[in-house]
Amino acid sequence: MALRATVLRHFGMTVRGPPLALQPWRSMSSHAEDHLSKEEVIERVLAVVKDFPKVDPSRVTPDVHFQKDLGLDSLDNVEIVMALEEEFKLEIPDKEADKIDSCQLAIEYISNHPMAG
Amino acid sequence: MGSSRGQKLSGIQKQVLSLYRGFLRAARSKSHDERRNIESVVSQEFRRNAKDVDRKNFLYIEYLLRRGNKQLDQLRNPGTTGLSSLQLRFSKTNHAGPSSNL
């Protein structure tokens, strides 16, 4: 990741893209240079969690725990992680998925995933 | 499963969640309407069992896991469009405890 930032900087490019709303090509493309910024990952993870039917959107923050803070159960937890898979076009193995129980861990996992789109 | 909040998952809990995930994944390969239907039926079934089945009744939970995995195998078959054929068996579940078909 650091190497990538260095390479991009070398070519006079910034790693951080414009806000999501200004990236109409985003959803269409899966090129490597279309790498996700941490800010974008946070924004989209929060959007998915807020969108979950049983969640009160006003309580969702980047460090919220799905079950302790949002009153969800372990089945809801599975559903949220699956919704994140779809949002970022990933398939998260069971072993990893079982560990993702908060926004913070979801953000961490997705922003470190090379295939997240 | 509410009392598992924030705790480490037990082996059998992991198996249940993995089965649940398997159903939701299999549902993705079906038509939009079928998918919604499968998600709704499967979610209801899992939540009902989570509420009704004694957490210590491992024998019965293991039976439900085996049955669920068989149903999941059927659902994964591209020829199976949905749960309509499986639904009957879902609703016949005996929640009282281990039954004669164990």
TrEMBL record, chain A:
Gene Ontology terms for molecular function: acyl carrier activity
Compartments, record wording: Mitochondrion
Domain of life of the organism in this record? Eukaryota
Instruction: State if Signal is listed as a keyword.
Output: no
What are the GO cellular component annotations? mitochondrion
Grouped into one coarse class, the protein's main location is mitochondrion
The residues covered by the Carrier domain are: 39-114
Q: In which pathway does it act?
A: Lipid metabolism; fatty acid biosynthesis
Q: What are the entry keywords?
A: Electron transport, Fatty acid biosynthesis, Fatty acid metabolism, Lipid biosynthesis, Lipid metabolism, Mitochondrion, Phosphopantetheine, Phosphoprotein, Respiratory chain, Transit peptide, Transport
InterPro entries in alphabetical order: ACP, ACP-like_sf, PP-bd_ACP
Family listed: Belongs to the acyl carrier protein (ACP) family.
Q: What does this protein do?
A: Carrier of the growing fatty acid chain in fatty acid biosynthesis. May be involved in the synthesis of short and medium chain fatty acids. Accessory and non-catalytic subunit of the mitochondrial membrane respiratory chain NADH dehydrogenase (Complex I), which functions in the transfer of electrons from NADH to the respiratory chain.
PANTHER family reported for this sequence: ACYL CARRIER PROTEIN, ACYL CARRIER PROTEIN, MITOCHONDRIAL
Q: Partners and quaternary state? A: Complex I is composed of at least 49 different subunits.
Protein name, UniProt field: Acyl carrier protein
UniProtKB/TrEMBL annotation, chain B:
Transport: is it a keyword of this entry? no
Which parts of this chain are annotated as the region Disordered?
75-102
**Where would you find the membrane-spanning parts of this chain?**
none
What subcellular locations does the record give? Mitochondrion matrix
Q: Which UniProt keywords apply?
A: Chaperone, Mitochondrion
State the Pfam families in the record.
Answer: Complex1_LYR
| Residues annotated as domain Complex 1 LYR protein | 14-74
Q: Which GO terms describe its cellular component?
A: mitochondrial matrix
Q: What is its main location?
A: mitochondrion
Keyword rRNA-binding appears in the UniProt entry: no
InterPro entries, A to Z: Complex1_LYR_dom, Complex1_LYR_SDHAF1_LYRM8
Q: Which family does it belong to?
A: Belongs to the complex I LYR family. SDHAF1 subfamily.
**Protein name per UniProt:** Complex 1 LYR protein domain-containing protein
